[in-house]
Amino acid sequence: MTEKEYLLHAFESEMIPKIYGFCRLKLNNQADAEDLAQDICLEVIKSINSQKQIENLNAFVWSVSNHLFFNLLRRKKHGDTVYLPDNIIASDDTENEYILEEQKKLLRRELSLMSGNYRRAVVMHYFDEMTCEEIANKLGKSVGTVKWWLHDARIAIEKGIDTMREYGEKSYRPGSLFLSCTGQFGAGYEPMSCAKRRAAQNILLAAYKQPLTITELCEELGISAPYIEDEVDFLVQNQLMKEVSKGKYQTDFVILPGNNKALANKIYEDCFPEFFEKLIGFLESKKDILSEKRFNTAGFEWSRLLWVYLHIFPEIQIGFYTHANKITVKYEDIPLRPNGGKWIALGYDSGMCMPERMTWEKYHAFDGPVHKSSTAHVQGFYHWWSNADSSVFFETPVEVFFLCREIIKGNVNISQLNEEQKYLFSIALEKKLFVKTENGYAQNYYYVNREEYRDLVSMGEEICRELLPLVHKAYSIILGEYEKTVPEHLHWQMGNFMTNGLNYLVTCSLYEADKRGMLSTPDENNKEWLSLFATE
Can you give the pTM of this predicted structure? Predict the structure, then answer.
């Protein structure tokens, strides 16, 4: 490829969108912006075709764009004009005033993108008029280091001002990240609580595939460096990111698409029909036992119980499979975390926008089974249509589940609650773990005692020989889909995440059972807790 061909290709693929963005920013009228953009493109192409020496295409396009824009101002300098911002008054000095204002804006832009000590040194020296010695004393550094920062900052500013910058897609269309974990979460529900803010979520998404500097993160998110630095420091401290080299940060846990309909379809088509037939046949054979009071303390109909059993029995099979094949990281090998937790974070990227909620998506889990704690022995499976992710689970105090358990077991009478218990029970009612009916308060979720849970696991063992080959087939499909997309440094924890993909077996089971009219209809009282499973 000749130099001319290279420049033309780079201009067409990289610069044209930036030129139009520049024109729309400067001009209020779309037609005028398009005309100016066309003039700029023609001038640049003409220069490239004339074999003009262009060392820096970005800087050259920026120069041509500004030159033609100011020519336009000259032609329009008499009277009011839509081409000037409201705070600029048209006059004979319009061009000079506007150029000065633009230079100030560019300087502020470059400072906002500059990280840490470089930005502080520039502000102290040029804005606060401090000497290098004063800056060194304030920051606890040598004078030579301060002079080095100022020298590098001036070079960066000069280069940046000549750059036609473009913010990344996440600056105007941010993604969403849902966090879960394997192991034991921290005292403040880390890691789930660490990425509630949209800025933190998009930093983690942006720096997943490759490490990024603070400046690169600023450009991608369209946020100034002081705010990005705070978020990055917080994420590094909580071990969701790490500094992989000087000034470069990368997300330190696996993130996969939270809604991969194609993968769910492939599992459904390739191995699910046989899985469901064997599973539902087994459950029907155990219907009388599983409907008994000791397994059905809430007195649910079979169609309501299936919401739980189609969740928990595939989970039992997945547990057998991962344990037998040593796929996941052992609990003793999971890292201890700063705030008392022992976890591996799991991330689900919902994409830039939520998908249209078609028939299939309404059964898809936010993050599969999530566990309250080793002491509460509660887990839930949340569906897109329920408008609830696992936050509703983790925001419910564990003491509420303890109280509900004692009420269900008959150890506590609702009519004789003390003040503290009344408060906890009010939360249970608010969260709809119990609901008030004309016959009194009714349990609204599934619970079994420890002995009954052991019996459920034993029942699951009865059918594992038939189901585990199909679980293995599903896992092979998932591994083939994602193995190459996970950064290599995260492969050691990949098994913990990939096995979560096996929850598509639950998704498919709920979809198929509903299609066959086997499931109860969700309502406002139970849609968040349909698949909640609790035990001692």
Answer: 0.61
